[in-house]
Amino acid sequence: MEFPCPAPLATSPRLTATAPSTEGQPASWAPAAPAIALLTALGVLMVGQMYTVLALLHPMATALGTTPEQVTWTATAFGFAYAAGFLLAGPLSDRYGSRAVITAGLVAATAATLAVSAAPDLPTAIALRSVQGLATASFAPAALSYAVRHIAPQRRGTALTCITSGMFAAAVLLQIGAQAVEAGLGWRAVFWISAALMALSLIPVRRVLRPTLRQGTGGGLGQAFAAMPRLLRRPRLVALYLSTVALMSAFVAVYTAVAIAGPAGIAGNSSAILALRAGALPALVAVPVLAPVLQRLAAPLRTVLAFALAALTVAGGSSLGPHAVPLAIVLLLFVAAVAAAAPAVVETINAAAPHARGAAVALYGCSMFIGASLGPQLTGALTGLGFGGILRVVAAALVLGVLLALPALRHHRAA
Asked: Residue 243 belongs to what domain range?
């Protein structure tokens, strides 16, 4: 899920020019509607591969001769590889062009996803999921780069909102899709179908997306990588990256807990889990719609408020007992809070690093998927506490996220 950062990119002075003026941009803007539709759909498919296994923990455990808790390592391995790949894909996209990177990534991801479907045991599945994560990591930074370079400024905000919302919605949509496919065709079919869709996507990618003209010889790769250590020496930025780790680990931990340690009548009940996952979808529609209203608040303030709402909803959910309807409401509010927090964090990061936005966003994406990778392991380590205990620990992690975001809020008020 692709992860959500429309506002800061769209508000960059460099990106709001009325015509392309930098080397590597096209002489005329590309048609926006087909590109937005394609990149949004691909965002769901590619980023959603991180989350498919959360809906497949029990059948994969049975087939691979292990436990659902051990199968969570397939999500963790994917996430860590994705985080590393994100750091590579951003500079590669700047150097070779978005369409080229997306195309190469789709080819590699197709092969890796097919390989996962044939995994005979857990260690092999973990290794292949790592390769899959590295391959699919090519998409998100390349898609955002394409929107920035090829879509006209007046449509760019809409493009970035749709693309990043699709990436975020993938966390829910691909779990629902994977669960439905597994029920009818088995868990391996989830990866067969994903691979087929990736392969078929190569056709519209080549027809819809424009190639990016080769950039100058300024050493884009070296410059991007050199900026990253400098950013990590800034405590306020490091705190924001750590808050992102807390946010995404909490998000994935909650959904993993519902699947393997949920209240009686929900954990192991595929219909109940499907309903809970689907019940969060309205939040993923509402937050982008409400973006103009939410953006009236400064990004650091939105970050703190969204983290606080997420912590409160998770803490409240820890004491609900075996009641599905209240839990669905809690998940709806929780997902809304996370969907509002993520773009606010990245907007705050971009404002703090105006001269190294590419490196700053790459580190943000890396921190997102480190957090997403830790989430399943957090739940697995805490299963002995029960569903309520897991949610209380997650709420505490989100409170830590609030504390990590406070320095940015204080700095904003002092500026």
From this structure: 6-18+27-212+220-414
Q: What is the DSSP annotation of 151-219? A: S-HHHHHHHHHHHHHHHHHHHHHHHHHHHHHHHHH-HHHHHHHHHHHHHHHHHHHHHHSPPPPPP-SS-
pLDDT in tens, 70-112: 898 998 899 889 888 888 876 777 677 788 889 999 999 999 9
Residue in the block written with tokens 């697995």: 380
The Cα-based distances of 93 to 101, 104, 159, 314, 349 in angstroms read 6, 11, 18, 38, 21
C-alpha to C-alpha distance for 173 and 181, rounded to whole angstroms: 12
- Into how many domains does the chain fold? 1
Q: Could you tell me if residue 204 is inside a domain?
A: yes
User: What CATH number is given to the structural domain containing 35?
Assistant: 1.20.1250.20
Q: What is the pLDDT of residue 174?
A: 87
Residue 1 falls inside a structural domain: no
| pTM exceeding the 0.90 threshold for the entire prediction | no
At residue 19, the pLDDT reads 39
Do the Cβ atoms of 409 and 347 come closer than 8 Å? Answer: no
